[in-house]
Design brief:
Largest sheet: 5 strands, mixed
Distance between the termini: 58 Å
Radius of gyration: 22 Å
Number of helices: 2
CATH class: Mainly Beta
Strand order of the largest sheet: 3-29-30-31-32
CATH topology: Methylamine Dehydrogenase, Chain H
C-alpha cells in the first residue's frame, strides 16, 4: 500500500524581532522564498531515522590539518570546479570595498562567472552580459531569444572555456557564444527543457534534460554524440539534475535520486545507486538534495534526509549521516563542514565518519553578541585563509576559526544580491542594485 504524503511545512525560523544592537537576526515577518522552496516537496510522514540534533564539543587536543590557501583567478563553472568543490581560497581580509560599477542589468541575475578580467553575467530575461573589470565597462551583450519568448523567464545554465560560453536553457535551446568576437558559433533547439548544470570533457559538452536523459554533445557544433536515458519522474520538483566531473569519470544525480558513474573513456555506466530512501519508489516519487561534491576517492551527496559519503570508485556508501546540508558544504582535505537544517555547524571526518564537532550557530552568535538567541538565514559557506566564512542573506558575514569559534561579525556595506565568488584574493558579487562590488 502506498504511503500517504503531506506537504512539508517548513518553519526554520521562529518569530522574532531584530536585535537593535547588531541587526544580524532575521526579520521573520518577511519569508525567504528560496528557503521555503528548498525542502517544500513531498516526503513520507515517518522517517526511518531521527534527525541529528545535538551538540558535540571539539576535543581539546584535536588539530585540523589543512593545506595552505591558494590563489584563484577564474570562475568558469557555476559550481567553480569540475567536481563542484571549492578550494581554501586566499583572501585579503582588508574588509573594504575597492570597486563598484554602474548598474549592469535591471533584471534578476542567475549566473556569475569570471574569465581573464571579464565578469560573465546572465539574467532571467536571457541577457548574457560581459563586463570588463579592467576597462570598467560592458564589452558585449547577447540576447539570443525572439520576441515571442520575451515574457518568459529564462533559466540559463552556463559554462565558459577559452572565451566561448556554452548555454542551455529551460526552453530546450543549446548554443555557443564567443564573447570576444560577439558572435554565436552555433545554436540548436532540442525542444525539451534542459535541467542540469553543464560540464565539458575534451570535445564533449555534457547536459541533462528534464526527462533525466544524460546527453553528450559535440561542443564544436552542438550535435548529439550519445544519449543515456535514466529514470524519469512524472512530477517535476525543485531539484535540478547535477553533474560532477572527476578525471575520466562523470557522476550524474537525477531527480529520481539515482546517482550514476559513467566512464568517459567508454561512455558506459560503471555503477549506479539510488539515494531516495522513501519506501515508495515509483516514477512520481520526489527527490531533493544538493549538488555532488567530489574529492580524492570520495563523493558527498546531501539528500533531503541524509548526508552520504560514497566511494566514487565502486558506489559503496561508506558513511550515512542523518542530517541535511541546507547550503553547499565545504569539502577540504579530510574534512567536511556543513550547516544543517536545524542550524548546526557540523564538522565531520570523511575517513572515519566521526562528528568532530556540532554547534548551534544561532547560540554561538547570541553568546558572541551577549544577547538573546534568535535565528539567522544562511546564504553561503566558504573557506578563506583557513577560516570558515558564513555569508548570511542579510549581508552579514560570520568569521569562525576551524574549531568553530566565532572570531568576528562583519556587515558588508554593500548588500549581497548574488553569491560571492573569489577572484585574486577579493570577493566579487552584485549588490542589491546589480552593481558589481569588489570587496577586498
Amino acid at each position: 500500500m502506498k504511503l500517504f504524503y503531506a506537504l512539508i511545512i517548513l518553519i526554520f525560523f521562529q518569530n522574532c524581532s531584530f536585535d537593535n544592537k547588531s541587526g544580524i537576526w532575521k526579520n521573520t515577518q518577511t519569508k525567504s522564498v528560496e528557503e521555503n522552496n528548498l525542502f517544500k516537496e513531498f516526503e513520507t510522514l515517518k522517517s526511518s531515522e531521527q534527525e541529528f540534533n545535538k551538540k558535540v564539543n571539539l576535543k581539546k587536543n584535536f588539530k585540523f590539518k589543512i593545506k595552505k590557501p591558494s590563489d584563484n583567478y577564474n570562475w568558469k563553472d557555476i559550481f567553480y570546479s569540475e567536481n563542484n568543490n571549492y578550494k581554501n581560497f586566499k583572501y585579503n581580509e582588508l574588509n573594504q570595498i575597492i570597486f563598484t560599477s554602474k548598474k549592469i542589468t535591471k533584471y534578476k541575475v542567475n549566473n556569475l562567472l569570471f574569465e581573464d578580467t571579464n565578469l560573465i553575467i546572465s539574467d532571467v530575461k536571457g541577457n548574457i552580459i560581459i563586463f570588463s573589470v579592467s576597462d570598467n565597462k560592458i564589452i558585449s551583450k547577447l540576447n539570443f531569444y525572439k520576441k515571442k519568448y520575451k515574457k518568459i523567464n529564462k533559466i540559463l545554465n552556463l559554462i565558459v572555456e577559452n572565451n566561448i560560453i556554452y548555454i542551455s536553457d529551460n526552453l530546450g535551446y543549446l548554443y555557443a557564444y564567443n564573447y570576444k568576437k560577439n558572435k554565436i558559433i552555433w545554436a540548436k533547439n532540442y525542444k525539451i527543457p534542459f535541467r542540469s548544470n553543464l560540464k565539458i570533457y575534451n570535445n564533449f559538452l555534457i547536459a541533462s534534460d528534464q526527462n533525466n536523459n544524460l546527453i553528450f554533445y559535440n561542443k564544436n557544433d552542438g550535435t548529439i554524440k550519445k544519449s543515456i536515458p535514466t529514470e524519469e519522474t512524472i512530477i517535476k520538483n525543485n531539484f535540478v539534475n547535477n553533474l560532477s566531473l572527476f578525471e575520466e569519470t562523470l557522476y550524474f544525480l537525477n531527480t529520481y535520486g539515482s546517482l550514476y558513474s559513467i566512464d568517459l573513456s567508454t561512455s558506459r555506466i560503471s555503477w549506479f545507486i539510488n539515494l531516495n530512501r522513501s519506501l515508495d519508489l515509483n516514477p512520481s516519487n520526489l527527490f531533493n538534495g544538493n549538488e555532488i561534491i567530489g574529492l580524492k576517492n570520495k563523493l558527498i551527496v546531501s539528500s533531503d534526509q541524509f548526508t552520504y559519503v560514497i566511494n566514487r570508485n565502486n558506489g559503496s556508501i561508506t558513511h550515512k549521516k542523518n542530517y541535511v546540508s541546507i547550503i553547499k558544504p565545504i569539502l577540504i582535505d579530510d574534512y567536511i563542514f556543513s550547516i544543517s537544517k536545524n542550524n548546526l555547524l557540523i564538522a565531520m571526518n570523511l575517513s572515519t565518519g566521526e562528528i568532530i564537532y556540532s554547534y548551534d550557530i544561532n547560540q554561538k552568535i547570541a553568546n558572541f553578541l551577549n544577547t538573546k538567541k534568535h535565528k539567522v538565514e544562511f546564504k553561503k559557506i566558504m573557506l578563506l585563509n583557513n577560516k570558515i566564512f558564513i555569508f548570511l542573506k542579510n549581508s552579514y558575514v560570520i568569521k569562525l576559526n576551524l574549531r568553530g569559534e566565532i572570531e568576528s561579525l562583519l556587515k558588508l556595506s554593500s548588500k549581497l544580491n548574488t553569491d560571492p565568488i573569489v577572484i585574486n584574493s577579493s570577493l566579487l558579487y552584485l549588490n542589491q542594485k546589480n552593481k558589481l562590488t569588489i570587496f577586498n
